Each structure stands twice: as structure tokens, then as C-alpha cells.
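Standup notes, structure subgroup. Blocker cleared on the GDP-alpha-D-glucose input:
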Amino acid sequence: MKRQLINVSNRLPVTLGEEIKKSSGGLVSALAGLEREDLALRWIGWPGKAVEVDQQSDIERRLRQEHHCMPVFLDQSTAHGHYDGLSNSSIWPLLHYMPTYFRYQPEWWPDFVAANRLFADKVQEVAGENDLVWVHDYQLMLLPRMLRERMPNLRVGFFWHTPFPSYEVFRCHPHREDLIEGVLGADRVGFHTFGYLRHFREAVVRLLGIESEITTIRQPTHQTQLAVCPIGIDARRLEETMKGESFAGHYQKLCETYRDQKIILSVERLDYTKGILRRLNAIDRFLSKAPDVDRLKFIFVSVPSREGVEQYQELRQEVSRRIGQINGRHATLNNSPIHFIHGTVEFEQLCALYARSDVGLVTPLIDGMNLVAKEYVAAQSEPGRVGTLILSEFAGAAEELFNALVVNPYDPGAVADAIGMALAMDAREKADRMAPMRNRVMRMDARAWARAFVDDLAAIEPAVEPARKIEAAIDRVKEAMNGGGRLAMFLDYDGTLREIERQPSAAVPTAEIRELLERLAAMRKVDLTIISGRSEEDLSAFVGRLPVRLIAEHGASIRAAGGRSWERLDRNISTAWKEQILRLLQLYEQSTPGSRIENKRTSLVWHYRNADPEFGAWKAGHLASELAALLANDPVHIRHGRKIVEVTPSGIHKGSAIVHAIGEVRYELILCAGDDQTDESMFRLGLENLLSIKVGDRQTSAQYRLPTPAAFRAFLRRCIGDLSINPAD
Ligand code: GDG
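Run returned:
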């Protein structure tokens, strides 16, 4: 069977009526170009209006058969809370740096979750394990994570059509963590510009505390790749339209109507991000000084948008009021300078407008990309009749269209001057500016964009290691348990048995962990040891009451199962360096808010988990090099681990503590499990009956890997015959 490319966007590209009409947006053509022999295209989305329950199955059948579309039916109230509410009143304004437009009602959140869940149900119904899923935009931010939880092998891409703002703005959202975590379920996340990518990564680091490289975010279950892939226009459709008769007719008509006039064109959805009111101020200013207003026509095509959201209704009224005012002020007997269309025009008419206009005036206050700017450029195909593009520096498109007259839309004087310059520009300069832009826009079109994204998504290896492999480990443990010999278990605590907490003192064992350890400890043939970098006090407090052996401070002390006193394994080891190093760490603690020192018997640790993540990491790098220089001749080991820098005597490590603990006992199997660098000394012991398990995603010499502490606990349960949980979960 063909592999499917399942494209999921909030809105299906169809209009429901007597007939079902397929819309012809850029995304539709871009993806149609991908339909190859090996890829079958499917669409999932909301069909645009609430459908009566008794009509749903008929509409669904027709959508599937005629258009390969799978509808997600939402009742009116869920659709309102999801779309008008959470998506467009709370997330959209923040993505566009406009917290003053932010509105939030707690009852919208359950609608948002429910709608995303219904989308996930539909994907699950349609998708096979080997398929590709491409999710679009902020309305579906929770969907990638839901899909990963349900179908871990599915390859999921996510594309942001909007900007992604600075963390300082995004953090205003009450559900910021859920939203970001939702997106991180994807294998690949695409942005129009590097600026948006950089902001997104920063939000991940600061909100979720995940350390990441610039374009890779490692998570226990998979990696998310971040990529810059600016969207393009449907160049082929535009070119073909401009060859057609309908276009020629409209073009001719425009030339006649505006025979002696210069046209300055703006096209957009009526949205506060598009900068319409500020643009009108600039036009007002320009007209006040313009020598011949009769020769000028500003045409606005303002497409009605999100009319269910209050601020859009207010904007519409304000725009009409301002236009009336400006036209009143500058109209002459023969002309009123602004022609305002509140509606859509046919694509042929739009192309004719682009081609006939002398200036394309595109001045959003902020815009993910802005395809109108690119379409305007593409329509300047006749060498003798080329217009000029004025483009806001805050549109993503400005990064590619830098030969335009780039303006600051907040500066009415600068925009007014740019209009003057554009109208006065000589033909040569217009052509010189336009040619390289048009070349790029025609080549890097929507098809090229979609192909690049999908090819890279398809090349990603399935995220989860085959469950089969861990089954082999379970079999080995079970075999050892059923055999005649004994079994030793050396289990690290934080990050292995127990999830990491921001405050180390909060990581007390849960009831589930206590019960699990008790069951293991009660097994006659099993010798259980908890082996940790924690102090004797911490370990005693956390698991000291259980009948298990404890090894503290990475192997510096050991306490027998049920024992009370600790045996010190560090008798001949010097800690004379501690005093001087403590003074140094105190300086770092003082200058790095949120960091703190842990003074253990044999070692010193500087923790920076609660410091600013970037500043903390930077200071930690400095500290590690300073320590390396200071302690070059001391028998210590300096470790820059997970949000810590630690100095320990070099003779002490978990591996040697295990050798000590085992002593003369002959074990059938020795199981070691851990999550960080200090656990590698156990994994590298080289004993032939060793079974080693790494929890988490970093490099390791362990034989097996599990993604999370929860998966490790499930593994232990399986080993002792509790079949209720799957370790691959
Ligand atoms: C979002 C992001 C990002 C407009 N009026 C008519 C009409 N249009 C078409 C244009 C263009 C599209 O609508 C508008 O696209 P934009 O990119 O300008 O803006 P948004 O709708 O805000 O889109 C944006 C985009 O997603 C893609 O990632 O660039 O930043 O906000 O294609 O041609 N089409 C017709 N009649 C009209 O009256 N036929």
C-alpha cells in the first residue's frame, strides 16, 4: 500500500454547500505537487461549519471520496472555544507581540484540548505506522504530543505559519508549558525565519528546562529537529492565471478605469497585525503633501476575518471611520483617494490588480511571512511595466525580499517618504530591484517548500528503539530469577528510579516506587542496592527504612541492607582541596542567582538548575574551566553534569563501589541502571554477567536503553511478573 502524507490543518480546503467546492490555496497546490506514485495525500481538518449529526456520515463519505478529505466535526460551542477563543483571542496576539489584545477565559482551554483530541482521533483512524503526518499552525499545538503518545513510530512534522515571539511575551500564556510540550511531540518543527526558531528554542529551554543544541531538542522518547523553511507562493498558478483571458479582461478594465492614475495597492485579511490603521496615518500624512491627489488611488482589499472575535469587529469599525475621515479630508471634485473593498476578489482580479499597481504597499506590524508581498513581486513579469514593493521590516518576507523599499511601519514619516520614493523611482531602478526578488520567489515556491519539508520528515528514523530489544533484557532477568543462582541489582535513584525534580529535596520516593522496591527487596534471590551521588543523610531519609543496601556519594560510603552504620570506602583519599574550592564556589553562588552549593563529606557540588538557564550554563562552563586549572595537580575528578558542576576525589566511583559490594559473592546476573555520566563507571565494569541499562537519551556504553524513569519502573515490574505496564511506554 502507498505511504500516506496526512496533512492536518485547522480548516479543510473545502467549502460546504449544495456542492462541496475544493479551495485552491497555496497549501493545496503545494501538496498536490507532492502526490507521487509512492505517496497518497490525505487532508484532515474542520469543514468550516457545524454539521447536523444526521448529515455527518453523508458529508464525510462525499469528502473522502471526492476530495480525500477527512472531516473533524466540532459542535458550535467547542469550535468557538477552540478557534475564536483560545486560538485567536489568546495565542494569536501573543505570537504577534500584542499582549494588549490578549483575552483569556478558562473555559476555552477544555475546548482547545477537546478539539485537538478529536483531531488526534481522526489521525489515528486514518494513519498507519509508516505514514507521515504534517500538522499546521498554532490551533493544533497539542496535536503532535497526543500523536506521539498514541503512535510512537509515526513521523510527525509541525509548521508555524506565524512568528514565534520572544519568551518574555509567550510566557504570558497561562498554558505556555502545555502548548510548547504539545509541539515538541513532533520530529520536525519548521519556521519561516531563524529569528522565530531561536525564540522557540529559548522558550523550550526556559519553560521546560530542556538543554538543547541550536536545532536539536533531545527528549527521552525522541529528538525534535528545528528547521528554517520559508514558505513560498503558488507560482505556477499565478503564472498560468496571468496567461488566461479572464486575467487579460480584468487587467484591461483596470487600465481603462485608472488610466491617468497611479495605483498603490494593499491586500490582506482585516487583522490588527497587518498595520492597517498605522498605514492609514502614513497615507494621510503623504496626501497632505501630495501635489496632485487626483492622480493617486490607494486600493485596499481587506478580507473579512475572524468576525466572531470582538477585537476584529472593533478594528473593522475603526478602519471604516478612518478611511471616511481621510477621504473626506483629501477628496477633490474628481477623486476620493482611498478605494476600500471589504471582501474578497477573484484570484484573476487579484493578479490583475497586482500587475497593474504601481506600488505594492505591504506594511504589517508583524507577519510570519506575508505571501501577498511575494505574489506582488511574482506578478511584476512584464519588463516594461514593473512596480515597486514597499515592505515592512517586520514581515518574515523582508529577509528574502531585501531589495524592496524596506520600512518601519511604526514610523508614519518613513512610510510616507517611501510612498513618495516609490512613485518617483525611475524604470531602471525599479527593474533592478525587482529582478532578483522575482527570480527567488519564482524558484523557491510553495512546491519547493513542501517538498523540502516532507523529504526531510520522511528521512527521519522512527523514534522508538524496537521494543523487541528490551524484551531480551527482560528475558535475561527472568531467566536469572528462575535459575538457581543469585541476582544483584544496582539502581541509581534520581533520573533512573525517580523523575528529576527542580528542588532535589522534593524527589522523595512515591508510593509506587516504595512498593516496587519493597517487592524487589523481598525476593529471596535478589540483592538490591540503591547507588547514588546523594549524601548519606539524603539516602537514609529517602530509602533508609527499606531493607536494601545503600551506596552514597558516588561510592564513598556503603551501608548494608538493614544496617545502621556506614562504612567509608574513602579512607586513604584526601579532601584537603575542599576548603579552597568551597570559597570559589561561594563566589559563583553569589553572582549567579538561583544557584547553590551542596557540601558533601567527600565532594562539593554547585547546582544551577534554578538559575537562569542560559546564564547558569555559561557560568558553569567558566567554573568547570577554572576548576580544571586550579586542581590540575590534585587527585580529583571534575564533572559538568546535568545542571551541576561537581568535584569528587578521583579514586571514588560507582564502579569500584560495586566491586567492593560484590566481594566474593558469585552472581548469576548483575543488573546496573543509571541515567548520567557517573553511572558509566558501572556500565564499563566489563563483567561478563553484567546487564546494563541507560535511562534517557545521552551517549552511553550501556547495553540497553529506556527513555524515562517511568519506563524503567515498568521494566522492573515486567521482570518480577507484573504484566500491567509496557516498558516501551
Ligand atoms: C498566515 C500568516 C503567512 C488575500 N486576499 C484575497 C486573496 N488573498 C490571499 C493572498 C495570499 C493569502 O490570501 C494571504 O496570505 P498572507 O501570507 O499574506 O497572510 P495570512 O492569511 O495572515 O497567513 C502569514 C501565511 O500564513 C503562510 O504561512 O505568510 O504570515 O499570518 O495568498 O493571495 N485571494 C483571493 N482573493 C482575495 O481577495 N483570491
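Discussed briefly. The pocket of GDP-alpha-D-glucose is lined by residues 26, 161-162, 231, 267, 269, 301, 303, 344-345, 347, 350, 367-372, 375 (CB under 6 Å).
Next: hand off to the docking folks.
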